[in-house]
Amino acid sequence: MARRAEPVEAGExxxxxxxxxxxxxxxxxxxxxxxxxxxGYRIAARRWKTPLGEIDIVARRRRALVFVExxxxxxxxxxxxxxxxxxxxxxxxxxxxxLAHHPDDAEREIPFDVILxxxxxxxxxxxxxxxxxx
Length: 134
Hints:
By secondary structure, this protein is of the alpha+beta class. The chain is built from three helices and five strands; from the N terminus they run αβββααββ.
């Protein structure tokens, strides 16, 4: 059985709270991806890393290439508050990196969605939550 990657500091084992947060993030992203698939999206990438930041989920649906930010907190309201201006700039820059490396996607609509995740609740999908011009 393959082991999942764990967050590691340079040469040091990760602290238990960091490992727990990492696993919660993986779980939230899996729930978000499942929701998107149920809505007819095709997942193109998960946890796509660039020098400019990471994109949680890249998905396609019809003519759209959707970049999705997933936020998980104890409460949905707290997850919504965690979508910051700095985070939006990071995902926009990472999306530009994606498009530079996947030129066939450049002609697609490019919405930026957010999925909010909290324990015991269905993930909340916010389509077109922000765009590159806001």
